[in-house]
Amino acid sequence: MKLVLTLLLATVAAFAQPIAVGVKGGVPLTDFVNTVTSPSPDLDSFGAKTNRYIVGPTAELYLPGGFGVEFDALYRHLNYNVHGELVDLITSGRTTGNAWEFPLLAKYRLPLPGIKPFVDGGVSFDTLGGLKQTMTNVLPSGATTTNSSHPVELHHNTIYGVAVGGGLDVHLAFLHLLPEIRYTRWATEHFRDVNDLLHWNQNQAEFLLGITFGGTAR
Predict the structure, then answer these.
(1) What is the spatial distance between Cα 192 and Cα 155, in angstroms, rounded to a whole number?
(2) Would you give the DSSP letter of residue 156?
(3) Residues 5-15: pLDDT tens digits?
(4) Got the DSSP string for 57-105?
(5) For residue 178, how many C-alpha atoms fall within 13 Å in the half-sphere facing its CB?
(6) How far is the C-alpha of 123 from the C-alpha of 120, rounded, in Å?
(7) Could you read off the pLDDT of 14-45 as tens digits, one per residue?
(8) Which residues of 62-98 are buried (b: 16+ CB within 10 A; e: fewer)?
(9) Domains and CATH numbers, the chain
């Protein structure tokens, strides 16, 4: 987080154009991880729960003609569970981690008085950190627990995609309120189970609300 804030401040200092900085938060409208019930008792069963929050810093460089360039650093937390049973073995595990999403978007505001609708689009990168997978195997002879920072289902630690969105810019005195719906199509997946019972959702949608200070769209 400190590194991200330092980069944002450096960006502000590097450009003479009006720049707004602030915070952006919201909720995912789709799940991060999709799971399927195992069709066979010999296969593991997965379960996942999406934490319904996204938050992080945001900065926008205002350009002439209603255009702008936005950069966000959005934090999310993820987790999923696995459970399997054989004749003499019970396996259970939990995986947790942090995901940082970095969208870089071109933005255009419609030249209307008052509240300004906008559209944006660009590229987005998502990288994982703090991964931890805890697995417990129970045999008639006893139980063993192992921890790993590289989950078995991990496919790619960093992924990229294309993001598009639209919303409103509400200018109130010295701040901007920016509600937005954003859709991201990821080119590949963070996680995928070998039996295809768990995989990263490549189509994700979010509702976001930005609050920024400084600068004025031109």
Answers:
(1) 6
(2) -
(3) 454 445 444 44
(4) EEEEEE-GGGEEEEEE-EEEEEEEEEEEE-SS-EEEEEEEEEEEEEEEE
(5) 25
(6) 10
(7) 444 599 999 999 999 999 999 877 666 666 78
(8) bbeebebbbbbbbbbebbbbbebeeeeeeebbebebe
(9) 2-213 (2.40.160.20)
